[in-house]
Amino acid sequence: MRMGWGDAEFPNGSLAARPDTCFGVVNFSTSLNETQRKAIASPWFSTAFGLIGLCSNLFALYVLLSSSRKLTSRSRSSFLVFLCGLVVTDFMGLLVTASVIIPYHFIKFDWAEVDPGCHLCNFLGFSMVFFGQCPLLLGATMAGERFFGINHPFSRSTSISKRRAWSIVGMVWGFSCLLGLLPVLGLGRYTLQYPGSWCFLTLLPDTGNAVFCLLFALLGIFSVVLSFIFNTVSVVTLCRVYHDRESVQRRRDSEVEMMVQLVGIMIIATICWMPLLIFIIQTILQQLPAGERSRTLPTETQKLLLIYIRMVTWNQILDPWVYILFRRAVLQRVHPGLRARPSLLSLYPVLNPSLRRKLAQEARLQ
């Protein structure tokens, strides 16, 4: 979700008089002095902010592609595929939303005139839901893959191939796309949000909007909680195995590297996303008694939503730096004692002879 662009000058006040379109949910008549207006509307800040995010993701993508060409390990290669999918998602999310919102900063077009049918608003709302849900689902997918790879290393005959990993990424993209299309298909709707430069789901208590908002928020929370459970169990397993007397000298740094990156991604997603997701649920549940009587969002709700959206924006900027900074090449400069060691699979002392030979061959490739 690329929400940090949501700071622009207010659109024409006539938009609030159209409650049945994507323009009538938010009250734009709130008076602001020039100082307050400049604090909210800063096209140069948003442009610089967007360029930093795009450059960060491009750099991370370059590093990922360079690393993937040198790897022969399937487990590590599949993990890099998931990371690549995450970086591509963040980059495209920034690019797509910026292509609409940044021009608005400079042109200051009237949404009602440019987009009377709400097609542009629906596209922007879809983009924010799609590119917002994808990183959370990909984070949970990566955590699940590492959970089974670390805790059940012998349950699969081979690691996930690159093709299969890309298929899983494609499934996540497809599921997020279907989720984002629900308002277009009739469940809820996308509406212009305060201060008038971006569109998102509608936090009103009517049935369609309430169901879609709760679905979006609960799915996001489920993804974060699932990532936390998987990563916690995986870290505990690594710590327990690595401190075993017989294997203290037989650790493997790649598993640690992947878990450090996963935990970093999870922490960033939790800090950036949970306030917004909880706020959406809280707002919907608090407004349910009002039922159909509520036609516009309260001013305080609009402002809080903008604050939480800006917090979410940092997710796609910080994600690539987790991989850039927490690679073994970087960590070894900080801690020279980190060196390549045998596979985690070698930490398990009792193996079937044929399985041991197969795993030993795979370990040599890593």
UniProtKB/TrEMBL annotation:
Domain of life, per lineage: Eukaryota
Keyword entries, A-Z: Cell membrane, Disulfide bond, G-protein coupled receptor, Glycoprotein, Membrane, Phosphoprotein, Receptor, Transducer, Transmembrane, Transmembrane helix
Subcellular compartments: Cell membrane
Main location: membrane
Entry keyword Secreted: no
Domain G-protein coupled receptors family 1 profile positions: 56-323
Name of the protein described by the UniProt record: Thromboxane A2 receptor
Any one of the GO BP annotations: positive regulation of blood pressure
Bilayer-crossing regions: 44-65, 77-103, 123-144, 165-188, 208-241, 262-285, 305-326
One Pfam family linked to the record: 7tm_1
GO cellular component term, pick one: plasma membrane
Coiled-coil parts of chain: none
Membrane topology designation: Multi-pass membrane protein
Gene Ontology MF term list: thromboxane receptor activity
